[in-house]
């Protein structure tokens, strides 16, 4: 298949107006009839004339059996259309508008790709983004075709009592032979990727939400009946999200019904289909006994995310898939803000930035590097959210809101581009954002270095910035980027200095507004090199740079270790307090890695231990913040900073530091564990989650020492836990070290939870991610475990995805990890290409490793690309990785 590029975008030659769908759902086949009113595009350059006086209409279709095709009620003759494995082409459509009717046969009962219409636990369900609708019927499967839909569904009434689609239910009734039907009508025009259908045995939790204009919306969350009790948290999240979007963005829900369906087999997290969101059940079902705090937080975020798409994605959608960030970057930003407002802003920011550093940055430095708006189609979420966040940092909350309002005013009901979003932000605020758009087109993580200078005579403090965007595949030369750098200056007591003016490129800018002192300002760094000079600075300050992580860049500065310890103790920007600790940790880890590689003894800087101790013992700090601040940077993050990634060295060093901290801070960790116990019932709120987080982090440190007394402490915590958060954390703490205690708790946990597949997935993941040497054999055995099933994406992500997360075992020197993954990818690809392509991307950074590993990984990639019948999805990732 040919790679598709952004520059190839062409307006469609035909538009669709109304789409009438009819589904006859059956056990051995399903018949889909579509009746579409089609009209040609009249303005702009029309396609070349091919046959007669009209141009052909190209419909996408995949795995479909064409039964009949009619135009304006007349059956088409064979010479009037052309059918191949990807398309149905109408060669001579009428020259004006017409009605197209197509009947197809599909087989959801055999569909293991989980795209299009498929079966999950006996129920029917759909997934159409990005290009799944073409597996349901022939259609112009592209997001700039917006149409209004009606959907009639007929099915056996006892097997499928609940029949759902988008919009409002307008008709229902019984048919012969125990069948029944419904008709749904969606008044909002939508692209086909937002179409959804669900049919099955489901029950719902029902509630209502009254919108700000007083409309009552019925809310239903559907699951198999036994799971309904586990939907309370999801319903809470949905109502909170609806209220938040009204309060923060003035956005109200636009229909009288909102449905969420939870299904066990789903390729991704969830899907924002208009008024019928379909969710991976992992992101809906929760109870204190079965779900951890992390699960509760993820559910809140993703329920919010999909709901927020109703405006950012559905009401205003993408023109083409290169614009994915238009809806995903913006909606991830919105869900991050929602979660921040519902919990702790700093802690949420820390979690998001860690994710960015451990996953996005490494990707951005490898062969899969892509700009926020890729030139060919690859997904981008997190970095896109950072770009949206920069608009807000530059424009302030009210300026950002003005931009959003204008965006909806201009584009409601349209399919648009990232430039349109940019233009709305710019025009609503009347600002010059010159080179900001490069964030959408340039891949790679910008590298910013800062040097500072204090002039005591002039009482000025200057910051000199230098930026560099590394070359990435296909983009060797880069333009400088527009980088907002939020800055504060600390005096010797640790307080923020008031900032009066800053001198930049021959102009003096006032920072202070009216008589209000200002303690933080956003510098706009837009050139390869430039300088900013603050005036009226009485003494040499310590700068706090890139506060709140105001831009997704790698920052280097001339701050000394003692400056960093000072910031760690005093910075008023909590994010930067954490960051100072991380910079110190990264430095120590890298220097110990060098020692390890040269066979030198490892010694941990006592100052580092003291810094961690003072944070751990600081009662004034938020407990969840402490838990994050005493957690070392991830192995992936450290490897990303090395010229040749060395998983063995990084792993050895990280384990060494963890054990040293555990040893030297044992008393502090012990008292943290005992003082953080609570006999109260589980509550999902920040205070309680923070307490549990700190306790669990301390316990994992202690148990890492493999000391019988500490192991029995962890076993005690495991046995007395009354919620999954603490039970699982204790299990993980014990499982760090091979031995009898580990084997016993793992077996006990399985016995306790074998009836609950979501909990068992945690059990799979924990074992898969284990750093125990030679763990590949254990993972191989787990593939054959009766609870494992390659057809269920969650199980694959837990066991196989989890294994790729254990850097020592996946990158084992003997190639056993690579070999295992190569085989699994080929097996998986036959069942589910989308899931297989996610898994194969674990290989994509093979060039970052030493020569032996490169050779071994490359051989696996070559084995994969040369396999017979490989899917396009896997081929794309594997061949790009090799290129
Ligand atoms: N899983 C995707 C999301 O909501 C589908 N758009 O982000
Ligand atoms: Zn999304």
UniProtKB/TrEMBL annotation:
<keyword id="KW-0645">Protease</keyword>
<dbReference type="InterPro" id="IPR027268">
    <property type="entry name" value="Peptidase_M4/M1_CTD_sf"/>
</dbReference>
<feature type="domain" description="Peptidase M1 membrane alanine aminopeptidase">
    <location>
        <begin position="235"/>
        <end position="437"/>
    </location>
</feature>
<dbReference type="InterPro" id="IPR014782">
    <property type="entry name" value="Peptidase_M1_dom"/>
</dbReference>
<keyword id="KW-0482">Metalloprotease</keyword>
<keyword id="KW-0862">Zinc</keyword>
<dbReference type="InterPro" id="IPR042097">
    <property type="entry name" value="Aminopeptidase_N-like_N_sf"/>
</dbReference>
<dbReference type="Pfam" id="PF17900">
    <property type="entry name" value="Peptidase_M1_N"/>
</dbReference>
<feature type="domain" description="Peptidase M1 alanyl aminopeptidase C-terminal">
    <location>
        <begin position="561"/>
        <end position="883"/>
    </location>
</feature>
<feature type="domain" description="Peptidase M1 alanyl aminopeptidase Ig-like fold">
    <location>
        <begin position="444"/>
        <end position="557"/>
    </location>
</feature>
<dbReference type="GO" id="GO:0006508">
    <property type="term" value="P:proteolysis"/>
</dbReference>
<dbReference type="Pfam" id="PF01433">
    <property type="entry name" value="Peptidase_M1"/>
</dbReference>
<dbReference type="InterPro" id="IPR037144">
    <property type="entry name" value="Peptidase_M1_pepN_C_sf"/>
</dbReference>
<keyword id="KW-0031">Aminopeptidase</keyword>
<dbReference type="GO" id="GO:0008270">
    <property type="term" value="F:zinc ion binding"/>
</dbReference>
<dbReference type="InterPro" id="IPR035414">
    <property type="entry name" value="Peptidase_M1_pepN_Ig-like"/>
</dbReference>
<feature type="domain" description="Aminopeptidase N-like N-terminal">
    <location>
        <begin position="68"/>
        <end position="194"/>
    </location>
</feature>
<dbReference type="InterPro" id="IPR012779">
    <property type="entry name" value="Peptidase_M1_pepN"/>
</dbReference>
<dbReference type="Pfam" id="PF17432">
    <property type="entry name" value="DUF3458_C"/>
</dbReference>
<dbReference type="InterPro" id="IPR045357">
    <property type="entry name" value="Aminopeptidase_N-like_N"/>
</dbReference>
<keyword id="KW-0479">Metal-binding</keyword>
<dbReference type="Pfam" id="PF11940">
    <property type="entry name" value="DUF3458"/>
</dbReference>
<comment type="similarity">
    <text>Belongs to the peptidase M1 family.</text>
</comment>
<keyword id="KW-0378">Hydrolase</keyword>
<dbReference type="GO" id="GO:0008237">
    <property type="term" value="F:metallopeptidase activity"/>
</dbReference>
<protein>
    <recommendedName>
        <fullName>Puromycin-sensitive aminopeptidase</fullName>
    </recommendedName>
</protein>
<dbReference type="InterPro" id="IPR001930">
    <property type="entry name" value="Peptidase_M1"/>
</dbReference>
<dbReference type="InterPro" id="IPR038438">
    <property type="entry name" value="PepN_Ig-like_sf"/>
</dbReference>
<dbReference type="InterPro" id="IPR024601">
    <property type="entry name" value="Peptidase_M1_pepN_C"/>
</dbReference>
<dbReference type="GO" id="GO:0009507">
    <property type="term" value="C:chloroplast"/>
</dbReference>
<dbReference type="GO" id="GO:0004177">
    <property type="term" value="F:aminopeptidase activity"/>
</dbReference>
């Amino acid at each position: 298949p040919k790679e598709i590029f952004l520059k190839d975008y062409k307006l469609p030659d035909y538009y669709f107006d109304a789409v009438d769908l009819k589904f006859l759902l059956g056990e051995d086949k399903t018949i889909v009839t579509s009746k579409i009113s089609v009209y040609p595009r009249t303005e702009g350059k029309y396609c070349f004339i091919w046959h007669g006086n009209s141009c052909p209409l190209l419909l996408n279709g995949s795995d479909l059996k064409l039964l009949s095709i009619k135009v304006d009620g007349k059956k088409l003759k064979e010479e009037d259309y052309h059918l191949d494995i990807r398309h149905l082409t109408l060669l001579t459509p009428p020259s004006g508008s017409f009605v197209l009717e197509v009947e197809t046969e599909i087989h959801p009962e055999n569909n293991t790709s989980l795209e299009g219409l498929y079966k999950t636990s006996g129920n029917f369900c759909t997934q159409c983004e990005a290009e799944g609708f073409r597996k349901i019927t022939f259609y112009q499967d592209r997001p700039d075709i917006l149409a209004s839909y009606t959907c009639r569904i007929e099915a056996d009434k006892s097997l499928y009592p609940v029949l759902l689609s988008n919009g409002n239910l307008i008709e229902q009734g019984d048919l012969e032979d125990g069948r029944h039907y419904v008709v749904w009508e969606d008044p909002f025009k939508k692209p086909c990727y937002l179409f959804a259908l669900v049919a099955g045995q489901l029950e719902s939790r029902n509630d209502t939400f009254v919108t700000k204009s007083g409309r009552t919306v019925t809310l239903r969350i559907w699951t198999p009946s036994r799971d309904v009790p586990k939907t309370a948290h999801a319903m809470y999240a949905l109502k909170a999200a609806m209220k938040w979007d009204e309060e923060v963005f003035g956005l109200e829900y636009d229909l009288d019904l909102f449905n969420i369906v939870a299904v066990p087999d789903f390729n991704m997290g969830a899907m924002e289909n208009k008024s019928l969101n379909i969710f991976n059940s992992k992101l809906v079902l929760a109870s204190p006994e079965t779900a951890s705090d992390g699960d509760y937080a993820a559910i809140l975020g993703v329920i919010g995310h999909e709901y927020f798409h109703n405006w950012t994605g559905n009401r205003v959608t993408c023109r083409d898939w290169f614009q994915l960030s238009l809806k995903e970057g913006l909606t991830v930003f919105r869900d991050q803000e929602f979660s921040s407002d519902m919990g702790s802003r700093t802690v949420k920011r820390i979690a998001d930035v860690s994710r960015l550093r451990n996953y996005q940055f490494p990707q951005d430095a490898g062969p899969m590097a892509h700009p926020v708006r890729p030139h060919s189609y690859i997904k981008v979420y997190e970095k896109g959210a950072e770009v949206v966040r920069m608009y807000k940092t530059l424009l302030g909350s009210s300026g950002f809101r003005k931009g959003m309002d204008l965006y909806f005013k201009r584009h409601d009901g349209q399919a648009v581009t990232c430039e349109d979003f940019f233009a709305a932000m710019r025009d609503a605020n009347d600002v010059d954002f010159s080179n900001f758009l490069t964030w959408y087109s340039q891949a790679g993580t910008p590298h910013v270095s800062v040097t500072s200078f204090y002039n005591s005579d002039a009482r000025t403090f200057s910051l000199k910035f230098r930026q560099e965007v590394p070359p990435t595949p296909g983009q060797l030369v880069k333009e400088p980027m527009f980088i907002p750098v939020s800055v504060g200056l600390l005096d010797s007591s640790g307080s923020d200095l008031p900032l009066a003016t800053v001198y930049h490129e021959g102009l003096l800018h006032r920072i202070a507004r009216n008589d209000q002192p200002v303690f933080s300002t956003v510098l706009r760094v837009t050139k390869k090199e430039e300088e900013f000079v603050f005036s009226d600075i009485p003494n040499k300050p310590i700068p706090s740079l890139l506060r709140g992580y105001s831009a997704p860049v790698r920052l280097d500065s001339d701050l000394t270790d003692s400056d960093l310890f000072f910031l760690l103790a005093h910075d008023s920007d909590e994010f930067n307090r954490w960051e100072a600790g991380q910079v110190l940790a990264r430095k120590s880890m890298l220097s110990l890695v060098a020692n390890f590689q040269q066979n030198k003894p490892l010694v941990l800087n006592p100052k580092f231990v003291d810094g961690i101790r003072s944070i751990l013992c600081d009662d004034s700090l938020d407990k969840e913040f402490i838990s994050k601040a005493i957690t070392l940077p991830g192995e992936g993050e450290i490897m990303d900073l090395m010229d040749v990634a060395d998983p063995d060295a990084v792993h050895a060093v990280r384990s060494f530091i963890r054990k040293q901290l555990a040893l030297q801070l044992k008393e502090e960790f012990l008292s943290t564990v005992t003082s953080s116990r609570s006999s109260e019932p589980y509550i999902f709120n920040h205070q309680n989650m923070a307490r549990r987080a700190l306790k669990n982090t301390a316990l994992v440190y202690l148990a890492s020492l493999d000391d019988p007394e500490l192991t029995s402490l962890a076993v005690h915590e495991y046995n007395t836990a009354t919620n999954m958060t603490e039970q699982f954390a204790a299990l993980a703490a014990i499982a760090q070290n091979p031995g009898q205690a580990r084997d016993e708790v793992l077996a006990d946990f399985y016995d306790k939870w074998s009836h609950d597949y979501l909990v068992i997935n945690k059990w799979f993941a924990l074992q898969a991610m284990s750093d125990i040497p030679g763990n590949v054999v254990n993972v191989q055995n787990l593939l054959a475990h009766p609870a494992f099933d390659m057809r269920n994406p969650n199980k694959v992500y837990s066991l196989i995805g989890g294994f790729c997360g254990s850097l020592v075992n996946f990158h084992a020197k003997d190639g056993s990890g690579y070999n295992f993954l190569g085989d699994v990818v080929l097996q998986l690809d036959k069942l589910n290409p989308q899931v297989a392509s996610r898994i194969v991307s674990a290989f994509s950074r093979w060039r970052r490793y030493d020569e032996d590993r490169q050779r071994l990984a490359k051989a696996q990639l070559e084995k994969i690309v040369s396999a017979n019948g490989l899917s396009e999805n896997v081929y794309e990732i594997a061949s790009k990785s090799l290129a």
